[in-house]
């Protein structure tokens, strides 16, 4: 594999790098706020995840008692040349206009991340809203800016503009946020969590002091080094498949179309 890898090739929205033998980094750069679109997910994120797994598995198969081979961890970070956004969520109007977006694009991405075979870390370098929040929860660990450079919030704001959640969202939240009171604040109140509040609530694992994207990424890399050895035995993803079975099942649930006309629209959009 040749790095850096920019995807999709005609108009890159993510960049995959491999700075250390046990570390891969996916940078989101769909505009300034890294909205989760079909092009970013199907043309960028999912192929990047496949490339990481292929690379890691080739190292894992070659480990043969080498204590360093087979380690692996993946960081997902927002656009590196700014400190304002990790991801601003979906391009909501476009998502609603595509009857296959949730079923064939977004939900399979979350299922893939939830069960990824090496530790995944969301390096949250700014605001993290809605679908971006769920992207971070689908990762195994979350490191966020401490907000000292500029304000940064985590928020599921659908309740404020009248949007129901797709099946994958509550499944992920129940798997990753154990306190029902915190779930209520996230889902039903649309609370804007500061980094400090999110850490106290157990949504985040660590805060990065300094406040810049470089600070967040450096902190995430230290965490990645600490957890990369968990991938060596090859069971990390398999255990997660059982641990988060319900979340994966919800993410991959395909609702029955409510009418033959809707079923026809879904099929035409897919073909």
β-strand number? 10
User: Quick one: biggest sheet?
Assistant: 7 strands, mixed
> How many domains make up the 3D coordinates?
1
Oligomer: single chain
Radius of gyration: 18 Å
Main sheet: which strands, in order across? 1-2-3-4-6-8-10
Fraction of residues in helix: 40-55%
Can you tell me the residue ranges where pLDDT is under 50 for at least 5 consecutive residues?
Answer: none
Q: Approximately how much beta-strand content do the residues carry?
A: 15-25%
Distance between the termini: 31 Å
Q: Give the class from helix and strand content and strand pairing.
A: alpha/beta
Order of helices and strands: EEEHEEHHEEHEEHHHHEHHHH
Q: What would you say the CATH architecture is?
A: Alpha-Beta Complex
CATH topology: 2-enoyl-CoA Hydratase, Chain A, domain 1
The CATH superfamily is identified as 2-enoyl-CoA Hydratase, Chain A, domain 1
- Whole-number average pLDDT? 93
Number of helices: 12
Judging from the principal axes of the Cα atoms, what is the shape? globular
Q: CATH class, please?
A: Alpha Beta
Organism: Schizophyllum amplum
GO molecular function, one term: delta(3)-delta(2)-enoyl-CoA isomerase activity
InterPro entries: ClpP/crotonase-like_dom_sf, Enoyl-CoA_hyd/isom_CS, Enoyl-CoA_hydra/iso
Protein name: ClpP/crotonase-like domain-containing protein
């Amino acid at each position: 594999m040749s790095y850096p890898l920019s995807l999709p090739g005609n108009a890159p929205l993510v960049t995959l790098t491999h700075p250390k033998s046990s570390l891969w980094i996916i940078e989101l750069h769909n505009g300034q706020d890294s909205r989760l679109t079909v092009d970013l997910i199907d043309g960028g994120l999912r192929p990047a995840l496949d490339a990481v797994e292929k690379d890691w598995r080739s190292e894992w198969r070659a480990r043969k008692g080498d204590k360093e081979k087979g380690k692996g961890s993946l960081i997902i970070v927002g656009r590196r040349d700014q400190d304002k956004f990790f991801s601003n969520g979906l391009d909501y109007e476009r998502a609603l206009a595509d009857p296959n977006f949730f079923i064939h694009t977004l939900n399979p991405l979350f299922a893939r991340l939830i069960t990824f075979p090496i530790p995944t870390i969301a390096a949250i370098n700014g605001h993290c809203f809605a679908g971006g929040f769920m992207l971070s929860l689908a990762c195994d660990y979350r490191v966020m800016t401490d907000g000292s450079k500029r304000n940064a919030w985590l928020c599921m704001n659908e309740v404020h503009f009248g949007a129901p959640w797709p099946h994958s969202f509550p499944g992920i939240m129940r798997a990753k946020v154990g306190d029902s009171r915190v779930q209520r604040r996230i889902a039903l109140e649309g609370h804007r969590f500061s980094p400090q509040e999110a850490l106290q609530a157990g949504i985040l694992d660590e805060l990065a002091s300094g406040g810049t994207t470089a600070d967040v990424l450096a902190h995430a890399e230290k965490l990645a080094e600490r957890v990369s050895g968990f991938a060596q035995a090859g069971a990390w993803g398999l255990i997660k498949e059982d641990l988060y079975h319900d979340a994966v099942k919800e993410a991959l649930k395909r609702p029955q179309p409510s009418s033959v006309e809707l079923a026809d629209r879904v099929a035409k959009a897919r073909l």
